[in-house]
Write a structure and sequence with these properties.
Blueprint: E1 2-8, H1 21-30, E2 33-39, H2 47-54, E3 58-63, H3 65-77, E4 84-88, H4 94-99, H5 105-113, E5 117-125, E6 128-130, E7 133-137, H6 142-145, H7 148-154, H8 156-166, E8 173-179, E9 182-194, E10 216-222, H9 226-238, E11 248-253, E12 255-260, E13 265-268, E14 271-275, E15 278-290
Parallel strand pairs: 1-2, 1-3, 3-4
Antiparallel strand pairs: 5-6, 5-15, 7-9, 7-13, 8-9, 8-12, 9-10, 10-11, 12-15, 13-14
Helix pairs in contact: 7-8
Length: 302
């Protein structure tokens, strides 16, 4: 009988996942599999040992992008090779949205049990791993500053309200960027380094981004004045951004070094990241992710 570890965050999203736990366990029992729950907590250091001792067929991350981030870091640091499933139940579920795995959970559970997975790249920033996005600059620290009670009550709207409040305080950074050895200097409101095309709950942020091509996409919102920055932000939010947008710098590369002219912290998958300078490497096909059947047609075995 197959066994899976279900890593879940009891406070992600509206802190309601615990009410779905029995339903999910029952869904896997119907598939003649065993689901072994593991509850995350602040400062947890036991997850890797737990997974290694259970030795499951796969590890499922139930929560938001932050929970998936935590699981990815444990799997990478502990050299655990099991495929990873994603049950997006957080305030932000960007990577799950990109994969479309939450559209039909019953079908997705079938794919997990049938071992349909694909190799996925992972980014490494100053020794910490990220699955979807690394960012810094204006508005990128909003997720760290939203009150937990407000986030539980209002979900994504809490982020938007906080972001609106930050607009009058926007200022630019001077960035020095190295991308696979090539160097660029520019003023910028913010930058994001993405693995998929979904970031910050926005679709089509980088249309060329692929999660298994061994590269990451750097997008820089250049210093262009607040009016033009707001117009750019509108296009990004609506998913209508143009590839030749004059106020957007887009570079695809395997490695990046990003330095700023003032102390600046980063964000990795919605979690507080290391301070700049940020040294980012792409680790090609670092993990396997369970996917839906239509994505599994081109599965590559690690």
């Amino acid at each position: 009988m197959k066994r899976y570890v279900l890593v879940y965050n009891p406070v992600s999203g509206h802190a309601t996942f615990r009410h779905s736990l029995d339903t999910i366990i029952e869904a896997f029992q119907r598939r003649r599999t065993v689901l072994i729950p593991y509850r995350t907590s602040l400062g947890d250091t036991r997850m890797g040992d737990f997974i290694r001792e259970i030795d499951p067929e796969g590890v499922l991350a139930a929560g938001g992008d932050g929970t998936l981030h935590e699981v990815i870091n444990v799997m990478m640091r502990e050299a655990l090779s099991q495929p990873i499933g994603i049950i997006g139940s957080g305030t932000s579920n960007d990577f799950a949205t990109y994969l479309g795995v939450n559209n039909d959970l019953e079908a997705y559970f079938d794919c997990i049990v049938d071992d349909i997975s694909r190799p996925v790249d992972v980014g490494c920033a100053n020794g910490e791993y990220f699955i979807n996005v690394a960012s810094a600059g204006a508005l990128t620290s909003v997720a760290h500053e939203v009150n937990v009670r407000l986030k539980h009550a209002m979900g994504k709207m809490a982020y938007y309200l906080r972001g609106i409040g930050e607009i009058p305080k926007l200022h630019t950074l001077h960035l020095h960027i190295k991308a696979d050895g090539a160097e660029v200097e520019t003023g910028a409101y913010l930058f994001v380094i993405v693995n998929s095309s979904v970031a910050g709950s926005m679709q089509n942020v980088a249309a060329s981004a692929e999660i298994d091509d061994g590269k990451l996409d750097l997008l820089v919102a250049k210093d262009s004045g607040l009016t033009e920055f707001m117009a750019l932000a509108k296009d990004v939010v609506s998913g209508t951004i143009k590839p030749d947008e004059k106020n957007l710098l887009h570079i695809q590369a395997k490695s990046f070094v990003v330095e700023a002219d003032e102390p600046t912290e980063s964000d990795l998958d919605g979690e507080r990241g290391p301070a700049l300078p940020l040294r980012v490497e792409t680790i090609k096909h670092a993990v396997r992710i369970y996917t839906m059947a239509d994505q599994g047609k081109s599965v590559v075995t690690l």
